[in-house]
Amino acid sequence: MAKAIRFHETGGPEVLRLEDVNVGEPGPGQARVRHSHVAVNFIDTYFRTGRYPLALPNGLGSDAVGVVEAVGAGVTDIQPGDRVGYLLGPQGAYSDVRVMPADVLIPLPDGVADTTAATLMMKGMTAQYLFRQVFPLKGGETILYHAAAGGVGLIACQWAKALGVRMIGTVSTDEKAAIAKANGCAEVIVTSREDIARRVRELTDGKGVPVVYDSVGKDTLMASLDSLQPRGTLVSNGTSSGPVVIDTTLLAVKGSIWVTRPAMIHYATPRSHMLAMAKELFDLVLAGKIRSEPSRTYALADAADAHRALESRQTTGATVLVP
Protein backbone atom coordinates (compact mmCIF):
# COMPACT_ATOMS: atom_id res chain seq x y z
CA MET A 1 0.00 0.00 0.00
CA ALA A 2 1.10 3.55 -0.70
CA LYS A 3 1.32 6.10 2.09
CA ALA A 4 -0.17 9.60 2.09
CA ILE A 5 -0.87 12.41 4.51
CA ARG A 6 -4.60 13.07 4.64
CA PHE A 7 -6.96 15.10 6.81
CA HIS A 8 -10.62 14.50 7.63
CA GLU A 9 -11.34 17.84 9.31
CA THR A 10 -9.83 21.29 9.22
CA GLY A 11 -7.72 22.56 12.10
CA GLY A 12 -4.19 22.64 13.42
CA PRO A 13 -1.28 20.45 12.34
CA GLU A 14 -2.64 17.64 14.51
CA VAL A 15 -5.37 16.90 11.93
CA LEU A 16 -2.76 15.55 9.49
CA ARG A 17 -2.64 11.75 9.43
CA LEU A 18 -0.41 9.26 7.65
CA GLU A 19 -2.72 6.73 6.00
CA ASP A 20 -2.59 3.78 3.62
CA VAL A 21 -4.01 4.59 0.20
CA ASN A 22 -4.66 2.62 -2.96
CA VAL A 23 -2.81 3.82 -6.05
CA GLY A 24 -3.82 2.07 -9.23
CA GLU A 25 -2.60 2.14 -12.79
CA PRO A 26 -2.67 5.45 -14.67
CA GLY A 27 -5.60 5.98 -17.00
CA PRO A 28 -5.63 7.84 -20.31
CA GLY A 29 -3.64 11.07 -20.07
CA GLN A 30 -2.23 10.15 -16.67
CA ALA A 31 1.11 9.08 -15.18
CA ARG A 32 2.09 7.41 -11.92
CA VAL A 33 4.94 9.19 -10.14
CA ARG A 34 7.01 7.88 -7.23
CA HIS A 35 8.12 10.86 -5.17
CA SER A 36 11.64 11.42 -3.92
CA HIS A 37 10.94 14.82 -2.31
CA VAL A 38 7.76 16.73 -1.54
CA ALA A 39 7.65 20.49 -1.03
CA VAL A 40 5.95 22.16 1.94
CA ASN A 41 4.46 25.57 1.14
CA PHE A 42 2.69 28.10 3.34
CA ILE A 43 -0.40 27.80 1.14
CA ASP A 44 -0.70 24.20 2.42
CA THR A 45 -1.67 25.60 5.81
CA TYR A 46 -4.54 27.52 4.19
CA PHE A 47 -6.05 24.26 2.92
CA ARG A 48 -5.44 22.51 6.25
CA THR A 49 -7.16 25.26 8.26
CA GLY A 50 -10.04 25.69 5.83
CA ARG A 51 -9.13 29.18 4.66
CA TYR A 52 -9.10 27.62 1.19
CA PRO A 53 -11.94 25.05 1.33
CA LEU A 54 -11.54 21.47 0.13
CA ALA A 55 -13.96 18.57 0.06
CA LEU A 56 -12.99 16.34 2.99
CA PRO A 57 -11.37 13.96 3.54
CA ASN A 58 -8.54 15.03 1.24
CA GLY A 59 -4.83 14.96 0.68
CA LEU A 60 -2.49 17.91 0.94
CA GLY A 61 0.38 19.40 -1.00
CA SER A 62 0.72 20.84 -4.49
CA ASP A 63 4.25 20.10 -5.66
CA ALA A 64 6.81 17.33 -5.62
CA VAL A 65 9.52 15.67 -7.69
CA GLY A 66 10.16 12.04 -8.50
CA VAL A 67 10.33 9.40 -11.21
CA VAL A 68 7.60 8.32 -13.61
CA GLU A 69 6.73 4.65 -13.02
CA ALA A 70 4.02 4.20 -15.66
CA VAL A 71 1.98 6.21 -18.14
CA GLY A 72 -1.53 5.80 -19.48
CA ALA A 73 -2.87 5.79 -23.01
CA GLY A 74 -2.22 8.90 -25.06
CA VAL A 75 0.76 10.11 -23.05
CA THR A 76 3.64 10.71 -25.44
CA ASP A 77 5.97 13.37 -24.02
CA ILE A 78 6.52 11.69 -20.62
CA GLN A 79 7.96 8.17 -20.34
CA PRO A 80 8.63 5.70 -17.50
CA GLY A 81 11.99 6.50 -15.94
CA ASP A 82 11.74 10.23 -16.58
CA ARG A 83 12.58 12.54 -13.67
CA VAL A 84 9.78 15.04 -13.30
CA GLY A 85 8.36 17.69 -11.01
CA TYR A 86 5.00 19.40 -10.80
CA LEU A 87 3.21 22.26 -9.12
CA LEU A 88 -0.30 22.09 -10.55
CA GLY A 89 -2.98 19.45 -10.31
CA PRO A 90 -5.07 18.16 -7.41
CA GLN A 91 -3.97 18.32 -3.79
CA GLY A 92 -2.18 15.19 -2.57
CA ALA A 93 1.56 15.65 -3.07
CA TYR A 94 2.21 14.62 0.55
CA SER A 95 2.54 10.96 -0.49
CA ASP A 96 5.11 8.45 -1.66
CA VAL A 97 3.43 7.64 -4.96
CA ARG A 98 0.39 8.97 -6.82
CA VAL A 99 -1.32 9.14 -10.19
CA MET A 100 -1.23 12.58 -11.81
CA PRO A 101 -2.45 14.26 -15.00
CA ALA A 102 0.55 13.90 -17.31
CA ASP A 103 0.16 17.39 -18.75
CA VAL A 104 1.22 19.03 -15.47
CA LEU A 105 4.51 17.10 -15.23
CA ILE A 106 7.69 19.05 -15.98
CA PRO A 107 10.79 17.12 -17.11
CA LEU A 108 13.80 17.89 -14.90
CA PRO A 109 17.03 18.68 -16.74
CA ASP A 110 20.27 16.83 -16.09
CA GLY A 111 22.34 18.89 -13.68
CA VAL A 112 19.41 19.83 -11.45
CA ALA A 113 19.20 17.38 -8.54
CA ASP A 114 15.90 16.28 -7.03
CA THR A 115 16.73 18.05 -3.78
CA THR A 116 17.14 21.33 -5.65
CA ALA A 117 14.13 20.85 -7.89
CA ALA A 118 11.91 20.11 -4.89
CA THR A 119 12.56 23.63 -3.59
CA LEU A 120 11.87 25.23 -6.97
CA MET A 121 8.68 23.75 -8.40
CA MET A 122 6.25 26.07 -6.65
CA LYS A 123 8.65 28.55 -5.08
CA GLY A 124 10.90 29.09 -8.10
CA MET A 125 8.00 29.20 -10.52
CA THR A 126 6.30 31.72 -8.22
CA ALA A 127 9.35 33.96 -8.40
CA GLN A 128 9.27 33.58 -12.19
CA TYR A 129 5.69 34.67 -12.67
CA LEU A 130 5.93 37.49 -10.11
CA PHE A 131 9.09 38.99 -11.59
CA ARG A 132 8.66 38.12 -15.26
CA GLN A 133 4.90 38.21 -15.84
CA VAL A 134 2.79 39.89 -13.14
CA PHE A 135 5.00 42.98 -13.01
CA PRO A 136 7.76 42.30 -15.57
CA LEU A 137 11.11 43.51 -14.29
CA LYS A 138 13.62 44.63 -16.92
CA GLY A 139 16.56 45.60 -14.72
CA GLY A 140 17.43 48.84 -12.96
CA GLU A 141 14.25 48.99 -10.85
CA THR A 142 14.15 49.28 -7.08
CA ILE A 143 11.47 47.02 -5.58
CA LEU A 144 10.10 46.09 -2.17
CA TYR A 145 9.69 42.39 -1.41
CA HIS A 146 8.18 41.16 1.86
CA ALA A 147 9.39 37.97 3.59
CA ALA A 148 12.72 38.05 1.79
CA ALA A 149 14.16 35.14 3.81
CA GLY A 150 11.28 32.77 3.06
CA GLY A 151 11.22 29.95 0.57
CA VAL A 152 10.19 32.12 -2.37
CA GLY A 153 12.01 35.11 -0.95
CA LEU A 154 15.51 33.63 -1.10
CA ILE A 155 14.97 32.67 -4.73
CA ALA A 156 13.59 36.15 -5.41
CA CYS A 157 16.73 37.69 -3.87
CA GLN A 158 18.91 35.79 -6.31
CA TRP A 159 16.63 36.39 -9.29
CA ALA A 160 16.53 40.14 -8.62
CA LYS A 161 20.32 40.24 -8.48
CA ALA A 162 20.55 38.29 -11.75
CA LEU A 163 18.21 40.81 -13.40
CA GLY A 164 20.10 43.83 -12.08
CA VAL A 165 17.19 44.83 -9.85
CA ARG A 166 17.77 46.53 -6.50
CA MET A 167 15.64 44.55 -4.07
CA ILE A 168 14.64 45.96 -0.70
CA GLY A 169 13.53 43.01 1.40
CA THR A 170 11.71 42.82 4.71
CA VAL A 171 12.47 40.21 7.38
CA SER A 172 11.58 39.79 11.03
CA THR A 173 15.03 39.25 12.57
CA ASP A 174 18.67 40.20 12.11
CA GLU A 175 19.49 36.53 11.48
CA LYS A 176 17.07 36.45 8.57
CA ALA A 177 18.46 39.77 7.33
CA ALA A 178 21.92 38.24 7.07
CA ILE A 179 20.53 35.27 5.12
CA ALA A 180 18.64 37.53 2.69
CA LYS A 181 21.74 39.65 2.07
CA ALA A 182 23.86 36.57 1.52
CA ASN A 183 21.42 35.59 -1.23
CA GLY A 184 21.63 38.91 -3.04
CA CYS A 185 19.08 41.19 -1.37
CA ALA A 186 20.50 44.71 -1.77
CA GLU A 187 18.83 46.30 1.29
CA VAL A 188 17.05 44.65 4.20
CA ILE A 189 14.48 46.13 6.58
CA VAL A 190 14.10 44.36 9.94
CA THR A 191 10.43 44.81 10.73
CA SER A 192 10.79 44.18 14.46
CA ARG A 193 12.65 47.46 14.88
CA GLU A 194 12.27 49.50 11.67
CA ASP A 195 9.36 51.34 10.07
CA ILE A 196 8.98 49.81 6.62
CA ALA A 197 7.55 52.73 4.66
CA ARG A 198 9.83 55.31 6.28
CA ARG A 199 12.89 53.20 5.54
CA VAL A 200 11.80 52.62 1.92
CA ARG A 201 11.44 56.37 1.44
CA GLU A 202 14.91 56.90 2.91
CA LEU A 203 16.41 54.30 0.59
CA THR A 204 14.69 55.78 -2.49
CA ASP A 205 15.31 59.49 -1.79
CA GLY A 206 11.64 59.93 -0.99
CA LYS A 207 10.37 58.50 -4.29
CA GLY A 208 9.09 55.14 -3.19
CA VAL A 209 9.10 52.03 -5.35
CA PRO A 210 7.12 51.16 -8.49
CA VAL A 211 6.09 47.74 -7.19
CA VAL A 212 5.66 45.91 -3.88
CA TYR A 213 5.42 42.13 -3.73
CA ASP A 214 3.47 41.39 -0.54
CA SER A 215 2.90 37.80 0.60
CA VAL A 216 2.25 38.81 4.23
CA GLY A 217 -1.10 40.52 3.73
CA LYS A 218 -3.05 42.26 6.49
CA ASP A 219 -0.10 43.25 8.70
CA THR A 220 1.90 44.88 5.89
CA LEU A 221 -0.88 46.34 3.73
CA MET A 222 -0.55 49.95 4.85
CA ALA A 223 3.24 49.85 4.79
CA SER A 224 3.10 48.48 1.27
CA LEU A 225 0.74 51.21 0.07
CA ASP A 226 2.83 53.90 1.78
CA SER A 227 5.98 52.60 0.07
CA LEU A 228 4.66 52.92 -3.48
CA GLN A 229 5.17 55.65 -6.02
CA PRO A 230 2.07 57.28 -7.55
CA ARG A 231 0.46 54.76 -9.94
CA GLY A 232 2.61 52.03 -8.42
CA THR A 233 1.53 48.40 -8.25
CA LEU A 234 0.79 46.31 -5.18
CA VAL A 235 1.17 42.62 -6.00
CA SER A 236 -0.71 40.86 -3.19
CA ASN A 237 0.61 37.33 -3.59
CA GLY A 238 -0.15 35.91 -0.15
CA THR A 239 -1.93 36.50 3.15
CA SER A 240 0.15 34.78 5.81
CA SER A 241 -0.92 37.35 8.43
CA GLY A 242 -4.56 37.47 7.38
CA PRO A 243 -6.76 38.48 4.44
CA VAL A 244 -6.35 41.83 2.70
CA VAL A 245 -9.38 44.12 2.66
CA ILE A 246 -8.95 47.36 0.71
CA ASP A 247 -11.24 50.39 0.49
CA THR A 248 -10.76 51.41 -3.14
CA THR A 249 -10.94 55.08 -2.15
CA LEU A 250 -7.69 54.51 -0.27
CA LEU A 251 -6.00 53.49 -3.52
CA ALA A 252 -6.76 56.91 -4.96
CA VAL A 253 -5.58 58.70 -1.83
CA LYS A 254 -2.29 56.76 -1.84
CA GLY A 255 -1.54 57.70 -5.44
CA SER A 256 -3.91 55.91 -7.85
CA ILE A 257 -2.42 52.56 -6.87
CA TRP A 258 -2.92 49.39 -8.93
CA VAL A 259 -3.59 46.16 -7.01
CA THR A 260 -3.47 42.61 -8.32
CA ARG A 261 -3.96 39.24 -6.61
CA PRO A 262 -2.33 36.77 -9.00
CA ALA A 263 -2.77 33.00 -9.03
CA MET A 264 -0.28 30.55 -10.54
CA ILE A 265 -2.92 28.71 -12.57
CA HIS A 266 -3.56 31.81 -14.70
CA TYR A 267 0.12 32.25 -15.56
CA ALA A 268 1.36 28.66 -15.85
CA THR A 269 -1.32 27.48 -18.28
CA PRO A 270 -1.49 26.36 -21.03
CA ARG A 271 1.29 23.76 -20.78
CA SER A 272 3.53 25.66 -23.18
CA HIS A 273 3.61 28.59 -20.74
CA MET A 274 4.50 26.31 -17.83
CA LEU A 275 7.37 24.69 -19.74
CA ALA A 276 8.72 28.09 -20.82
CA MET A 277 8.63 29.31 -17.22
CA ALA A 278 10.46 26.19 -16.05
CA LYS A 279 13.11 26.56 -18.75
CA GLU A 280 13.90 30.13 -17.69
CA LEU A 281 14.13 29.02 -14.07
CA PHE A 282 16.30 25.97 -14.69
CA ASP A 283 18.57 27.91 -17.07
CA LEU A 284 19.39 30.29 -14.20
CA VAL A 285 20.03 27.32 -11.91
CA LEU A 286 22.33 25.65 -14.44
CA ALA A 287 24.15 28.97 -14.93
CA GLY A 288 24.82 29.16 -11.18
CA LYS A 289 22.75 32.32 -10.72
CA ILE A 290 20.13 30.63 -8.52
CA ARG A 291 21.11 28.11 -5.85
CA SER A 292 18.48 26.45 -3.72
CA GLU A 293 18.55 23.56 -1.27
CA PRO A 294 16.17 22.59 1.52
CA SER A 295 16.85 24.33 4.80
CA ARG A 296 14.75 21.77 6.69
CA THR A 297 13.89 18.17 5.84
CA TYR A 298 11.24 16.03 7.53
CA ALA A 299 10.01 12.49 7.03
CA LEU A 300 6.63 12.28 5.34
CA ALA A 301 5.14 10.96 8.59
CA ASP A 302 6.28 14.15 10.35
CA ALA A 303 4.37 16.57 8.11
CA ALA A 304 2.60 18.03 11.15
CA ASP A 305 5.94 19.03 12.66
CA ALA A 306 6.88 20.72 9.39
CA HIS A 307 3.66 22.74 9.55
CA ARG A 308 4.30 23.75 13.15
CA ALA A 309 7.76 25.04 12.26
CA LEU A 310 6.44 26.91 9.22
CA GLU A 311 3.60 28.62 11.09
CA SER A 312 5.81 29.60 14.01
CA ARG A 313 8.12 31.45 11.58
CA GLN A 314 11.05 29.30 12.68
CA THR A 315 12.01 28.52 9.11
CA THR A 316 14.03 30.24 6.41
CA GLY A 317 14.25 28.98 2.85
CA ALA A 318 12.51 25.81 1.76
CA THR A 319 11.12 22.86 3.74
CA VAL A 320 10.69 19.43 2.15
CA LEU A 321 9.30 16.04 3.10
CA VAL A 322 11.04 12.79 2.22
CA PRO A 323 8.75 9.77 1.75
Please, could you describe this protein's structure?
Helices cover 29% and strands 27% of the residues. The protein is built from ten helices and 16 strands. Strands 3, 5, 6, 7, 8, 15 and 16 form a seven-stranded mixed sheet that branches. It has a six-stranded parallel sheet with strand order 11-10-9-12-13-14, sandwiched between helices. Strand 13, helix 8 and strand 14 form a beta-alpha-beta unit.
Features:
323 residues, globular, seven-stranded mixed β-sheet, mRNA 3'-UTR AU-rich region binding, 2 domains, Rossmann fold, Quinone Oxidoreductase, Chain A, domain 1, NADP, alpha/beta, 29% helix, Quinone oxidoreductase
Compute the gyration radius: what is it? 20 Å
- Count of extended strands: 16
Q: What do we call the CATH homologous superfamily of the largest domain?
A: Medium-chain alcohol dehydrogenases, catalytic domain
Report the β-strand fraction as a percent range.
25-35%
Class derived from helix and strand content: alpha/beta
Largest sheet: 7 strands, mixed
The name of the CATH topology of the largest domain is Quinone Oxidoreductase, Chain A, domain 1
Give the helix level as a range of percent.
25-40%
Instruction: Give the rounded overall mean pLDDT.
Output: 96
Poorly predicted runs of 5 or more residues: none
Quaternary organisation: single chain
- Written as H for each helix and E for each strand, in order along the chain, the element string is EEEHEEEEEHHEHEHEHEHEHEHEHE
Q: What number of structural domains do the residues give?
A: 2
Shape summary: globular
CATH architecture of the largest domain: Alpha-Beta Complex
Q: What distance lies between the first and last C-alpha atoms, to the nearest angstrom?
A: 13 Å
The CATH C-level class name of the largest domain: Alpha Beta
Number of helices: 10
Protein name: Quinone oxidoreductase
GO molecular function, one term: quinone reductase (NADPH) activity
InterPro entries: ADH-like_C, ADH-like_N, ER, GroES-like_sf, NAD(P)-bd_dom_sf, QOR-like, Quin_OxRdtase/zeta-crystal_CS
Organism: Ramlibacter cellulosilyticus
